[in-house]
Every structure is written in structure tokens, then in C-alpha cells.
Amino acid sequence: MSATDRRSPPQSSLLAAGATMLGLSLLLFWLPILGPAIAGGVGGRMAGSPARGVLLALLPAVAVGILIVLVLGAFDLPVLGAVAGLGVAVVVLVQDLPLLIGAAVGGMSAE
After folding, report:
1. Is residue 4 part of a domain?
2. Rounded CA gap, 71 and 79, in Å?
3. Is 65 within the bounds of a domain?
4. 14 by DSSP, 3-state: which?
5. Domain count, the chain
């Protein structure tokens, strides 16, 4: 097999990988550290690379933080919204640390 015959592994869509990661996280909620790590590993492998897997794992934290900033900004509380949004984003990131690690490892295994 020559170098030109080698093909990269097929990458699924980010939407499918993200949905799989979310679904497995919900199904394996009863495994405190192992559940999110497994979900991240499967989602990262489906994403096809460590960067894409970690991006998928980070999106919910960023989305929740932005949503809180927007909601509290709509009630004329932009400073409180910024502080609360950042705090929630940090808490979600810390809680999803096994998911992030699993996504990076799953992405590395796909390469």
C-alpha cells in the first residue's frame, strides 16, 4: 500500500458526534467519572480529531454561559449576568473535565 492509498478515517458530522456525546452522558449519568469519560471518548472518536472532540465538549459550557449573560442582560443586569455567566461556565467546565479528557483521547484514537 503506497502513501497515496492511505485515507484518513471517515469523520462523522459534528452534530452527530455531539448528539452521541450528549446522549451517552445522559445514559451513563450514574457512573460519576467513568460515564462522562466514556461519552467523551465515543464522541471524540466520532468527531475524528482531538481538537474537534474537545470543541464539542466545550460548546455546552460556553452556550450556558452566554445564555445566562443574555438573559440577565435583558433584565438590565449586565454586570451580574457577566459574573454569573462566567461562574456557571467555569462550574460546567470543571464538572465536564472527564468529558473533555475523554473527548481528547477519543479524538487521538481516531487519528
Report:
1. no
2. 12
3. yes
4. helix
5. 1
